[in-house]
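step 3/5: co-fold with protoporphyrin IX containing FE
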Amino acid sequence: MTSPLDLLLWAVLPYVTIAVLVGGTLWRFRYDRFGLSTRSSQLHESRLLRTASPLFHFGLLFVAAGHVFGLLVPKSLTSFLGVSEEMYHLGALVMGALAGCATVAGLAILMWRRWRTPAVRGATTRNDRLTYVLLGVVLLAGMSTTVLTNGVMGEYDYRETISPWFRGILLLQPDPALMESVPLTYKAHILGAMALFCLWPFSRLVHAFTAPVQYLLRPYVVYRSRGEGLGTRELGARERRRERQGL
Amino acid sequence: MRVMAQLAMVMNLDKCIGCHTCSVTCKQTWTNREGVEYVWFNNVETRPGQGYPRQYEDQRRWRGGWELSRRGRLRLRGGSRLRRLGSLFANPELPALTDYYEPWTYDYRTLTTAPLGDDSPVARPVSAVTGAPTTIHSGPNWDDSLGGGPENGALDPVVAKLRDELGHQVRFEFEQTFMFYLPRICEHCLNPSCVASCPSGAMYKRVEDGIVLVDQDRCRGWRMCVSGCPYKKVYFNHRTGKAEKCTFCYPRMEVGQPTVCAETCVGRLRYIGVLLYDVDRVTEAASVQDEKGLYPAQLDLFLDPEDPEVVAAAERSGVPHEWIQAARRSPVRDLICTYRLALPLHPEYRTMPMVWYIPPLSPVVDALAKTGFDGEDAGNLFGAIEALRIPVEYLAELFTAGDPEPVRASMRRLAAMRSFMRSVNLGEVPDQNLLSGVGLTEDQVRAMYRLLAVAKYDERYVIPTAGVGQAHELEAVATKCSLDTEGGPGMGGGGGSRGGPVELVVWNAQSRPEGLFPRRERS
Ligand code: HEM
Ligand code: SF4
Ligand code: SF4
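step 4/5: write tokens
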């Protein structure tokens, strides 16, 4: 029997997170396009950023790819393809640890830089601080699952529990029972990640959703007519209300 | 042939006195905000000198503009699209704030709040970015009028190029030195590398008038345009995280007014007008193998608005009749195409810039005068233009990718005009050979003189307004303040709860003065 807490954490919260993430992102794309920016601080400080930012971002892209692989690809498929349990485990451990270390190191330098460079510090908002803390927590918890739970302390096959649970969420068949036996480090990592995803649309992290891959396909020089887009910005809810009230 | 219209500017460098009125009025209009304290859409630099940002012309370092690949294809100097995407996380070619300068203000408060003492209080410099006390190492115009100074001269990338690649030593001894002012705005290029570098597609060239703009709602702060522009005329607003640049004062242009920098120019040396060009041939012209061929190739793009074929093609491409007429009267076309006086700035960047310059004759005249010759005598002047290698070669590095001939030709025409008009003014019989020698007729010289020396307002600026079809809406734009909404801070609107007047000079984005914004609603 699943406890109400488990039900809340592993069957309700995931959907709340998805709703906030999707809804919040749509809201920002519609009403706060001007606010969507990396808010680059490279103008203020370049030396540290040039090592730390690629380290962090490329590390993170690997980590993200690893997550997709680990969570979405069912165990049956990899074993069908002839990947043994040991090979998979070793691969995940080594690659995950490497990418994770790069990401954590990158983030550490970025945070140090933010703290120590007066101009960058001045450009840091409260929202940024919260984002950094949460990002740090999720990353460290994630690293501890790989390095501690899954490395030093032995082996934990998350592909028997967490992965099916995650796919169940996506397939609208949540099974919170799968999460009951999961080690604490994993639980902390997942809960932290859900909090991060809730913050995502409202923080600077949205820039990740605007990654400009279309650049590869478009012609170099963009021409636009004066009329296009002129005054076509959609009004925010508040502005529309004002308009209706004739204010 | 696909015809497009382009608003272009020409500046007559001989008349620039380096007063910076253009920079200041531009700044007060467009960049007197937080985040863009260090930004000058219009700046005036002293040449020889480092420019702003310092040494921006050194493209081996900044990698702005375009280059030809080994197979002769045009590509961004900053690398392929994949390389650009790969360097999104940290842009290796981005100038730092210190390459511009760290903006500062002064701690004026001490002047009035310091306790009584023996020493008079001093307002110390405070960084406008961090608010901490700072030491000023450089400023927006640090080497102003120090063109000949040995510390600055040798740091000029153009001087360095002349020295390293051509073995020409620019002299900085007092007697041989020369300097002039170079006012710069965005070039609103025909082949803009800033637009091509923007991964989001937020930057665009306007079809109607060729003005290059940043869509603030689409910019995501990837800061690739900043390094992509070889003239360093896109700036990063460090508050909003968005790129900003010279807009060619498009709200003014649309109602037929010149840009703020042109309107307020004390020397009355700026000209604005329309040029018609063939868009289909831009890439081809920008891909000419020999850099010295880029200036003629660009000239070749411009179309003759008197040619019936061109007019028909223009109408087919949707260029309004008014604009074709404006192109016929364009002072810019006269200076660029007819008299061949104006030259592009750094055509070797292959962006096909559209703010052109009439090279200054004054370094030559000054040099003559210093040696005791009559600086306005045609014989002396022509001789000097030939003999004074360095200023001419320096100018050629700026305007024609190093080909001295177009610079000399332009200067000879200027010299011929000076001598001819002096004879006229002194009641002498002008030497007609003078004119035929430079390929001008007397009528042309008089018209040139009128345009350059008399420089009437409505001859300097021939600006067609934006489409007649929209005249009705534009009238509202022109005659009404955009802040004049109900409840807005403008003078119009009825009722509403507005506070008293707002002191904009000391306002920063952190504070929220009563009346400047609509009331925050608390729900
Ligand atoms: C592939 C998509 C992404 C791209 C293209 C991208 C690009 C950028 C850029 C250009 C900056 C500004 C760096 C600067 O000049 O200051 C930045 C900063 C940042 N990005 Fe990303 N990013 C991506 C994905 C992500 C993701 C997925 C995360 C986190 C989950 C992330 C977290 C951050 C953080 C925390 C910063 C601030 C760094 C600092 O200045 O301290 N990014 N990113
Ligand atoms: S000069 Fe202006 S149009 Fe040309 S590349 Fe630079 S910013 Fe773009
Ligand atoms: S206002 Fe005119 S004269 Fe003065 S610096 Fe600017 S361009 Fe030169």
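step 5/5: annotate
Residues B 186-189, 192-194, 212, 229, 231, 233-234, 245, 351 surround iron/sulfur cluster (ligand 2) (CB under 6 Å).
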